[in-house]
Amino acid sequence: MNLHSYDELVKSRHRLSLLLFLFLNTASSIFTMLTTVDNRKLITIPVVIIAVLGVTGLLFTLLRTQKLHKVLNTYSIAMGILWAWHITLKYHQIAPDDKNFLLLSLFSVFFISAIALSGNFIAFTLHVLPAALMVIYLDQFHNIIRILFTIALPMAGFSLHHLMQKRSDAFTRRLVDNLYIEREKFSDLSMLDPLTNLYNRRGLENRWASITAPMRPQSHFVLLMDIDHFKAYNDNYGHTMGDQALVRVAAAIRDNVRSRDIVVRYGGEEFMVLLTHVEHAYAQKVAQRIQQEVLGLEIPHVFNEDVSTHVTLSMGIASLTDRDWVAAVTHADNALYRAKNNGRNAIEFAQEIPVVQEQPVTSLA
């Protein structure tokens, strides 16, 4: 989960609160209209409006999923004012001396807010405040202590709940952010070879998937290369020296291609370079430059004496057309096999690539 998905979760929570709030108001208004007092149904205009507004609000919310977090406050103040209006009208209709009616009405409004708006302090306040003020006004301060206690206790509780919720949300956001950063770091590390810091095969697949530009014929090239007699090098110099040789060869390859080209440790002593949007003459020059650079490292390798007394590379090159990755790698591997059979420290091209007359090796632009 990232911050975007967490924000979507928060929006979903606001939407569910709005749906619950509208449903409870609608149900309460319908119940009020069906309730009788002294065998009389006391239906008021505001309670009818609440029912209509609730039903239309439910339909609107179910059909619309975007930008609903601000709508909740609007509905809250509107419903709060309508309930305050209803309490006023009904209070004058039934009996001004019935003080229990005011407290019960206030409890009803708080009940709706407590269930539906516990996670939104602003909406909670907007909903209960009109009714609370109206009850205080109608009571003429006769039961002010009871009414204030009825108001203050849930307000204090919801204030503390709101503060804890904000801190919890802030902590969750930081946690999600940190987890996302750590996941990105882990993902990056999982795509890199820990010894050479080049891409591994997973990193190659990831980078290859990101190449979406249209390909021209023979505009991409696969260079598959292998260190000559590396098993003998490891057997005689030891694996620690072998690792050092791999690191130096990997650095030489990486330093002689462009930053946008993909360099991969393809196997134990096997490397791959994907050159993007170049001509075959340029691919040939890069291959020669890499080969000379590795030889110029002068890494002693007396068990490579049939080719050189230093570490050398054999290389196969194939074009990558029509995004046929498997065919390109197969052709490059076959070319590498021929280079090995032709004496090593050699460069061979796949049959579909014309060999260009060698040109002096130039530095990268």
TrEMBL record:
GO biological process, one term: negative regulation of bacterial-type flagellum-dependent cell motility
Stretch forming the signal peptide: none
One MF annotation (Gene Ontology) recorded for this entry: diguanylate cyclase activity
Keyword vocabulary terms for this entry: Membrane, Transmembrane, Transmembrane helix
EC number(s) recorded for this UniProt protein: 2.7.7.65
Database matches in CDD domains: GGDEF
Annotated transmembrane regions: 16-35, 42-60, 72-89, 101-124, 144-164
GO cellular component, one term: plasma membrane
Catalytic reaction annotation: 2 GTP = 3',3'-c-di-GMP + 2 diphosphate
Name assigned to this protein: diguanylate cyclase
Cofactor(s) listed in the protein's UniProt record: Mg(2+)
Source organism of this protein record: Chimaeribacter californicus
Gene3D superfamilies in the cross-refs: 3.30.70.270
InterPro entries membership: Diguanylate_Cyclase, GGDEF_dom, Nucleotide_cyclase, Rev_trsase/Diguanyl_cyclase
SMART domains: GGDEF
Pathway connected to this protein: Purine metabolism; 3',5'-cyclic di-GMP biosynthesis
Domain GGDEF: 218-352
